[in-house]
Structures are given as C-alpha cells and as structure tokens.
C-alpha cells in the first residue's frame, strides 16, 4: 500500500475520519437504519486503488449502534488537497477535512462525486484486476473484479440521482455501475440473478458485465458492486402507468399491461429452466413450508390492530373499524389458506422478490426488468430464498392497484388491468413452476396477494399512515372476491 493512503488508517487520520463518518452516513439515502442511533463508524477494511498515488480507495465502514448488531457499508473515498470544486458542484459528497502527512490539510470526498475516482475504479473493474487491502481485524483482504463481458464506455460518469438503497453511476450511456452500499456476508441476489438470467439468455434485463467482490476469508465473498450494460429508457413503469391512467386508458389501452405480464412470465420461465446450478434448481414447496407461511401471515395480520392503535391520531376516520371488520372475516381467511395448502404439486424457484412497477423500465413501448436485490428489510437468506412465482405476480397486481388509486383510475381500471395482466401471464408462462390447473394458480395468487396486502398494511402504518386505505381496500376486495366464489 502506498504511504499516503497508509495515513488514512494511521491512528491520527483514522480517528479524524471516523469522527466525521457518522454525520456523513446518517442522512444518505442508501443508509438503511435511519431509526437507529449510531454509536460509532469505523474503518473495517481499506483498499487503495493501485497506480492512483494512494489517494483513491474503496473502504468498508463498520457502523455500530446504541442497540443491536452492527452493519457494514461500502464507501468509495478520494483524498484531495482542495475539495472546493466538489464542494461547489456536489457538496453532498464532501466527507470532511483530515490532517495530511507532512503538514497541511487534506479533504476526503465520497468518490461517487469524483470523475477521477469513478473512472479509475471502472478501469480497474474492466480489466478484472485485484488489490490487496488493510483490515482492522488483521489479515490481508482482497478486492477482486470478475468480468463476464467487455465493458465499453468507461468515461463520462454520471451518478443517478434517484437511487435509494444502492448507488448507480452511468458511464457514457453504455454501462452502469451499481455500488452495493450495505454489505452482507455472501453474494448479493443482484449478482446471482443477473448472472443466471444473462447465462439463460433472458433478453428483458440488462446483461451483466462485471462484479466486484470482497475476499476476506468468508465462505462467500460479499458483493461490493456490479456492472451492467446500460439500457436507454423513458423512465419506469410506475410513471408510465400513472400517465396512461391520467390519459384515460380504457380496455384496449391496457395492451402495455399485457406486455408487462409477458416479460414477467418469460423471466419466470428462465428461472424455472433445467439447470445444474443448485441455487436455481426448482424444488417442491412443501405443505409444511406453506403452513409456516400461513402462520406468519396470520400473526402479522393479528398485529395490525395494535399498530393501528399506536397511529390512531393520524388515521382517517373509520379506518380502525374497517380493519376490525376485515379481521373478523375468519371464514374467508380459512378458505384462502386452505385452498393454498391443497395445491399439489407445488413448486418454488428463485424469484425477483420485490417486483413492482418501479422495477420495470420502459424501452420503446416494451419493458426491461431491473433490480434483483429483493426487499431491503429482509435478510440476505430470505432475499435469496426460493418461493412461488406467484409472489412476483401478486407484487405486480398490488402495484397496479396502487397506481390505479393514486391516479384516480378507480376499481374499473384496476379490474381491467388485472384481467389483462393475468390473461397474458397465463398465456405466456410456458415452462414455469406454476400449477397446470387454473384453480390451483388462483389459490396461490389469492394467498400471496393476502400476504402482500398485510405486508403493505404494516409498511403504511409505520411510514405513511395516510396511505393505509390502499392496502385496506385491497384486503376488502380480496374478501369480497372469496365470498363471491
């Protein structure tokens, strides 16, 4: 390691940096634990970029909390003598000032705000290079790039401003680097799913070009970043759908919903294709596993009222009474669960796991599926678990319902869109892991729509009480559908 970056983890400089990290990390959009009190932020590993004179590094920051386990986050760091340019153009990327060896101040900035840092690391990844690092825990960790295809256009980096749980940077409208901010002990679902779908030749997702992994002696190296081919697009399907509803889309104009369904069905067929990779082999979804799922939904539903009571002051009038009425519909719940348990054979595969309209990009009237990280609140094991493909179908239907209510489309538009989606999905499903009988597919779909609605109730009560009506309407409609047979 070069002498100048050595100073980043020398006692004095490290103490200064670590004192500034909590204030920098806490407001970032990619920081997951905003409700937890940060007790400390320390450097766990540092990987100086070779041939960068020691001023650019990839760092793993260990964040400790007042209560509960610590977390690790990836941070690209650049040290510069003058941060005024970055401060003037992207002040949100300035971490702070630290002492410099030999006298004089130095500034540390988040490398996402530095063209030099981004282009240097992209060249490192493109040539499949490796770099040794320093670790607070001892040993010599290794940061390694794996390539799956040639990376074109490693200049003109442009950070994507709308990122949430991760950070993406577009390079010359040819490739896109996604930094996996929160690190898990194991390969990310984004990497595994992208690699598999690229290998299967699934055309409706950006091809995987490279991955950056951290080898520090664990069974599976954590994923630091992935690189995909950049897909020029006109935005996401959520915005597209809101515009379509606002423009008065009627029955014949739900053709775009059918195209979405066809792409989802093709993805499920690719995920169910025969393979020697145990991570993607279809397996039975046993009755015991389904009983566990049903028990979890039941417990989650029972906890809704307590959460509603805690939010009573901000809930709309009549919401709690409607929640109680839904909870009293025990016969409908038993029917939904019983029908799901009776499905035989029942299969599970890898799925998207967090599929909604925001995870589809619009491209020339067609759609591309992106972002396979799964629900951020779930553990890595849960996000990589095999599930029924109907989990994704339920996610899309619930997202269409949200869009309909948000844009004022009402129940008629949603009913038309739901029918169009399911008809097209069933026609295109092909060699997937779904039951052959329509009644069995309906039974699985109803259960996973129930599961999704209950999840949404908890989310909205915790984060957006004004939106509780949306999943509540979904549950009420589901109950009426069951009662009607």
Question: How would you concisely characterize the structure shown here?
Answer:
Helix content is 42%, strand content 20%. With 485 residues, the chain is an alpha+beta fold.
Q: Specify the number of helices.
A: 16
Radius of gyration: 24 Å
Shape descriptor:
globular
Q: Determine the mean pLDDT.
A: 90
The amount of helix comes to 40-55%
- Termini gap: 69 Å
Biggest β-sheet strands, sense, barrel:
7 strands, antiparallel
Number of strands: 18
Give the structural class.
alpha+beta
Beta-strand residue percentage: 15-25%
- Spans of at least 5 consecutive residues whose pLDDT stays below 50 are 1-5
Molecular structure report:
There is one protein chain. The chain is an alpha+beta fold and 485 residues long. It is built from 16 helices and 18 strands. Strands 1, 2, 3, 4, 5, 7 and 12 form a 7-stranded antiparallel sheet that branches. Strand 17 (360-363) and strand 18 form a beta hairpin. The longest helix is centred in the C-terminal third of the chain and has 26 residues, at 438-463.
Key terms for this structure?
485 residues, single chain, alpha+beta
Set down the secondary structure blueprint.
Blueprint: H1 3-6, H2 11-25, E1 38-48, E2 56-65, E3 71-80, H3 84-89, E4 94-99, E5 105-110, H4 115-126, E6 130-132, E7 134-135, E8 142-147, E9 157-159, E10 167-171, E11 175-179, E12 182-183, H5 189-200, E13 208-215, E14 223-229, H6 237-246, H7 255-271, E15 283-284, H8 287-302, H9 304-310, H10 319-327, H11 330-341, E16 347-348, E17 360-363, E18 366-369, H12 380-383, H13 390-407, H14 410-428, H15 438-463, H16 469-483
Antiparallel strand pairs: 1-2, 1-7, 2-3, 3-5, 3-12, 4-5, 6-8, 8-13, 9-10, 10-11, 11-14, 13-14, 15-16, 17-18
Helix pairs in contact: 6-13, 7-14, 8-15, 10-16, 11-15, 13-14, 13-15, 15-16
